[in-house]
Structure formats: structure tokens, C-alpha cells
Amino acid sequence: MSRAPLIVPAVKKHTATVIFAHGLGDSGAGWKDLASQWRRQQKFEHVKFVFPNAPSIPITVNFGMAMPGWYDILSFDDLQGRSHDETGILKSREYFSSLINDEVTSGVPESRIVLGETPPQSLHPPPYPSTNPHPFTPPLGGFSQGGAISLFTGLTGPHKLAGFFGLSSYLLMHDRIKDVIAETTPAPDKAVPIFMGHGDSDPLVKYAWGQKTAQVIQEMGWKVDFRTYG
User: How would you classify residue 46: left for phi > 0, otherwise alpha for psi between -120 and 50, otherwise beta?
Assistant: First the structure.
């Protein structure tokens, strides 16, 4: 079972939420400084930050020893391969969907929720200029393994988010994802913006995997803002 998420509350009227998922072996506390920095700069004061904590599970690439992870990883050699922990991935997707639902229940519309790291323009207090067709939904996103599950949750879920993103991420269940999307009710909203960032020298999550992920997502009908970092 996951530990409760680390919460950084809004300091002004709470009108938006960012949910950020950490990578393998990390914790929500490892990313809290992001929110702390913005607090010091008096930015995004209306935004609540949610940093979930992955459960401690046996990880095959860690010789089967337990560590925080959103799903098992069988090999680092081909994270884009077919050998994905489907059971763990779907379980984590349900968890992130529950976090989104909790925010909606608290009064934050889906269109003001972001699954990811940096609050986009669509999370600035209204009125604000935005091309986002759902200007009141929060975002969702994450780094590495957390970015992969964030992308998967956004692509296969019914939520009309402000956006979602993945940093140094890759596509999960790529051989089945179209079927999972087709089974989603209501259908995923392909107008929701997606951001991906990837280092061109990433030694673990290969840059080519990030490029391929963005390409496949765009071929499925979404628009992806893919940025390269050197």
C-alpha cells in the first residue's frame, strides 16, 4: 500500500492542482523542492501540489528486492519492450485516477488538474489567455517511471485534464495501449495538451524511446510538445 501523498497546499484560494509522480526508488519528498521554490518566488500560489509516494514492491532489476515503484521493471535493456508489468501498471493507473477524483470531489474541476511537473499557463488564475479547450482542469505528470505512468493514465483515462506530461519517459504497454484506449468510457479527450521533455544523453531511458513515444502518441491523435535537453 502506498504511503499518503505529500501535500503542499495552496497559499491563496485553491483553484488548481498539480499531481507529480516520482521515479523508481524515489519518493514524493524528493520533488517537494519544486513547490518550495515556487512558494519562495510567490508563483502559483493558487495551486495545490500533490506528490504521491509509490508503494514498496519487489523490483526485478533490483534483484527482486523491494523499493518504491509504480510497477515492476523486468529489464532496463528495453523499457519499450513487451515485457511490462501490466497488472502493476493498471493498478497504479487506478491510484492516480483516484487522486484526480479526490481533487474533483474537493471542488477542483478536472480542467484545472495537471498530471506533471510545471504548472502550464492554463493553471494561472482566470481570466487568462489559453488555447486549452478545458480551461479549468488540473495537470498530471512525472519523471521517468512516474512520467511513464502519468502518460499512460492521461492517455487511457476519461479525465479532461488541463494537461499531462512525462520527463525522461516512455510508452507503457505499447502493444496493447490502443486496445486499452478503445475500452475507455467515456473516450479519452485528444484535445488535452501533452508535454514531453527528454535529455539527448539519457543513459537509462534512451532518448530514442522518448522520441518514439511522442511519435506514437501523435499518430494516435494527440498533440505532443516534445522538447530536447542537452
Answer: alpha
Distances (CA, A) of 85 to 59, 88, 101: 10, 5, 24
CB 97 within 8 A of CB 159: yes
pTM for this prediction: 0.89
91-149 tens-digit pLDDT: 999 999 999 999 999 999 998 998 864 444 444 443 333 343 333 344 678 889 999 99
By the 10 Å C-beta count (0-12 exposed, 13-18 middle, 19+ buried), 77 is classed as exposed
Give CA–CA dist 147/197, Å, rounded. 10
Q: Please report the sign of the dihedral spanned by the C-alpha atoms of residue 124, residue 190, residue 100, residue 175.
A: negative
Q: Are 17 and 138 in contact (CB under 8 A)?
A: yes
**Measured distance CA(71)–CA(89) in Å, rounded:** 6
* 203 Cβ contact list (under 8 Å, min separation 6): none
Q: What is the pLDDT of residues 7-46, one digit of tens each?
A: 999 999 999 999 999 999 999 999 999 899 989 999 889 9
